[in-house]
Amino acid sequence: MTQRISLTRYLVEQQRLEGHIPPELRLLIEVVARACKRISQAVNKGALGDVMGSAESENVQGEIQKKLDIIANEVLIEANEWGGHLAAMASEEMDSIYAVPNRYPQGEYLLMFDPLDGSSNIDVNVSIGTIFSVLKKPEGAQSVEESDFLQPGTSQVAAGYCVYGPQTTLVLTVGDGVAMFTLDREQGSFVLTEENVTIPEDTQEFAINMSNMRHWDEPVKRYIDECLQGKEGPRGKNFNMRWIASMVADVHRILCRGGVFLYPWDKREPEKAGKLRLMYEANPMSWLIEQAGGASTNGRQRILDLQPTKLHERVSVVLGSKNEVERVTGYHCGL
Ligand code: P6P
To answer: Which of 120, 214, 297, 302 is deepest in the core (most CB within 10 A)?
Structure first.
């Protein structure tokens, strides 16, 4: 049974005993966690809080923004800009980076986030979440530029998400395994409920949007077809399928019980490498999955090794149970 300690105590001990978290990074994580608590409260209000429905505006991705997308983005900006731990932020909901205003002290960290991932599920009461990734500002950088964010996923110093579902759960890594904290609404604080999270190397559960099947590349068609053939097919076992259309929820399930998640490149928009964004979706989720013993590739290469070229660039994603990811990647590489 995991000892029930608060997120604050966990971070203090990681800082003091393990030397993994400098004080400014501890502050950053606590501020993000507090912002997620506020987002959770707004999400939980639903129709009672006039937060549902469209904001009648589009984001940089060309997607219609929900009111809660904008609320969550504003909560994260306002919570983080004054603390002195950040130099700048970047968000799925903002075209360009947000440099911390000169009226506040500048810090050494860069924070990226998808403030509310899966927002198409908001109006139908299905789990959604906030995803975040932390980088260090390059040494000597005076004013922060977009190019300072373009670091591979291996450069992350912290990554995590908060899933707003039946429980509100913060999932975090600082490079020493994965820990989960459940929001105790009576105390008003996140409490450690799992640590050293481990994903089984094998699975019988895949997550993909099957409606896109006719658009997939051959290796993905082959992999899914073999899963669907079940016990009588080449895999010799039956598979189950899940697709929540909320990456945070699908990844959380995989961290809890294994599985493989695929959002591959497809022929609908061949000029795009995939649907999901590298910097603030695929990279933080890939680090969490690897820290839990899983694997994450774009079908051919380890996602964390990819060198970003644009802030909002997209990537094909195959992540989860190690042996399944290696199989899908092998099919792409002609094995
Ligand atoms: P589709 C949500 O919009 C998201 O970015 C991810 O959270 C999710 O995995 C995916 O898109 C769902 O995409 O095409 O199935 O609606």
So the answer is: 297
What confidence tens digit (pLDDT) does each residue in 77-107 have?
Answer: 999 999 999 999 999 999 999 999 999 999 9
Residue to mutate (ligand 1; options 117, 269, 280, 317; most atoms within 8 A of CB): 117
SS (H, E, C) 50-99: CCCCEEEEECCCCCEEEHHHHHHHHHHHHHHCCCCCEEEEEECCCCCCEE
CATH of 205-332 among 3.30.360.10, 2.102.10.10, 2.40.50.140, 3.40.190.80: 3.40.190.80
Domain-wise residue ranges, the chain: 7-194, 205-332
Asked if residue 203 has its Cβ within 6 Å of ligand 1, the reply is no
| CA–centroid distance, residue 44 to ligand 1 (Å) | 21
The answer, yes or no, to whether residue 53 has pLDDT greater than 90, is no
pLDDT tens digits, one per residue of 186-212: 999 999 999 999 999 999 999 999 999
